[in-house]
Design brief:
heterodimer, A: mainly alpha, about 65% helix, B: mainly alpha, globular, cell inner membrane (chain A), ion transport (chain A), transmembrane helix (chain A), translocase (chain A), Na(+)-translocating NADH-quinone reductase subunit D (chain A)
Chain lengths: ~210, ~200
């Protein structure tokens, strides 16, 4: 490393200022698909943190031996192996949740956050900062996932983590769950609102 | 006729962007002007048309349960389907690298304008998603795979060209609130287009 990158900023920057989802616009597909309910969103966030941290470390360890021509294939194979391990673990211990997430655990492989961080950070940094970078970015992704899922489950089904939150007397007085929130386009609108809030607080991010 | 129906279905009813929301990253990142968006759309279509049949053959003759029985009766029990993910992604990644080299050699101007996005096609979820849907749906023949790939690709191409055209107009003629400018308003426009495309849902062709 030419200049010393502060480990603290590597870990904490991705949480807000350099968030992978709302600032770098990576990994949108899964944000839309898995955020209908809170529980799968939590599991998905955790899986991404794990896969991202380990793949960053592995790629960082072998970064000097990878020929640049075939680096994409090498990176994808490492990521794919890790994703298969996570997928099998989920199927073994949390079968219901893995059924809900279906194809999207496999699609972690093509989650752009992974390729983006591997290319941008792990290929040029030592293993320990790479691991922190992986955890930080994974957590930044997980936070957005949880916020979006919170609003969609609350407004769309009136529940949180499967427990009824909106009390019965609301329904008796004519409150109705907003069915539109369950459909994928509303996830885009919720993310747009998060971007709006975040950019009005951080003026330097505005275009 | 069957295949033509699947082709049409894949363009409109099963549109990759508006029905499944796959391939959003490059969809949002490369849609600033129509020309590059169109180029990327063509590249994605091309990749889908190539990788889907290749993965289909791989799936039918190597990976599926009992697929290896052409080697001899003792292989009829073998089920390699847990390897499908890693095989698909390897095929896609190597095809991308091949296409990248070919484009660099024969059309340097297209290469210059696509730049970093060519390698990103490898991680475009629309392409891996296409292969996974193909695995789920048990297509009857390799031509079906070609048609579905072409349809998904063209649907993606239409979507990204449309959003790029809208964004060009938005940037020129509208006064969006400052924090929403750029990516924020693109999200909202995409959401509205998604709602519109829902009118195709449930159409049986």
């Amino acid at each position: 490393m030419a200049e010393k990158v502060s480990l603290r900023s590597v870990l904490f920057n991705p949480l807000s200022r350099n968030n992978p989802v709302v600032v770098q616009v990576l990994g949108i597909c899964s944000v839309l698909a898995v955020t209908v309910k809170l529980a799968p969103a939590l599991v998905m966030g955790l899986s991404v943190i794990v896969v991202l941290a380990f793949s960053n470390v592995i790629i960082s360890l072998i970064r000097n031996t990878i020929p640049t021509n075939i680096r994409i294939i090498v990176q994808l194979v490492v990521v794919a192996a890790l994703v298969i391990i996570v997928d099998q673990l989920l199927q073994a211990y949390m079968y219901d949740v893995s059924k809900q997430l279906s194809v999207f655990i496999s699609l972690i492989i093509t989650n752009c956050i992974l390729m983006g961080r591997l290319e941008a950070f792990a290929m040029s940094n030592k293993p320990w900062p790479s691991m922190l970078d992986g955890i930080g970015n994974g957590a930044g992704y997980a936070i957005i996932l949880v916020i979006v899922a919170f609003f969609r489950e609350l407004l769309g089904s009136g529940t949180l983590l499967g427990y009824q939150v909106v009390p019965q007397w609301c329904y008796d007085h004519g409150y109705v769950n907003n069915g539109l929130m369950i459909l994928p386009p509303m996830a885009l609108i919720v993310v747009a609102c998060i971007i709006w809030v975040q950019r009005s607080r951080n003026k330097e991010l505005q275009e | 006729m069957e295949n033509f129906n699947i082709f049409l279905r894949s363009i409109f009813v099963d549109n990759m962007i508006f029905a499944y929301f796959l391939g959003m990253c490059s969809f949002l990142a490369v849609s600033k002007n129509v020309k590059t968006a169109f180029g990327l759309g063509v590249a994605v279509t091309f990749m889908l048309v190539i990788t889907l049949p290749v993965n289909y053959l791989l799936e039918t003759y190597v990976l599926k349960a009992g697929a290896l029985s052409w080697l001899g009766p003792e292989y009829a029990e073998v089920d390699l389907s847990f390897l499908s993910l890693i095989m698909f992604i390897a095929v896609i990644a190597s095809m991308t690298q091949l296409v990248e080299m070919a484009v660099e050699k024969y059309s340097p101007s297209l290469y210059a304008s696509l730049g970093i996005f060519l390698p990103l096609i490898a991680v475009n979820c629309a392409i891996l998603g296409g292969s996974l849907f193909m695995e789920q749906r048990d297509f009857p023949s390799v031509w079906t795979a070609v048609c579905a790939g072409g349809g998904w690709g063209i649907g993606w191409l239409l979507a990204i060209t449309a959003i790029a055209a809208i964004r060009e107009r938005l940037a020129a003629y509208s006064s969006v609130p400052a924090p929403l400018r750029g990516i924020g308003i693109t999200f909202i426009v995409t959401a509205l287009m998604g709602v519109a495309f829902m009118s195709f849902l449930g159409i049986k062709i």
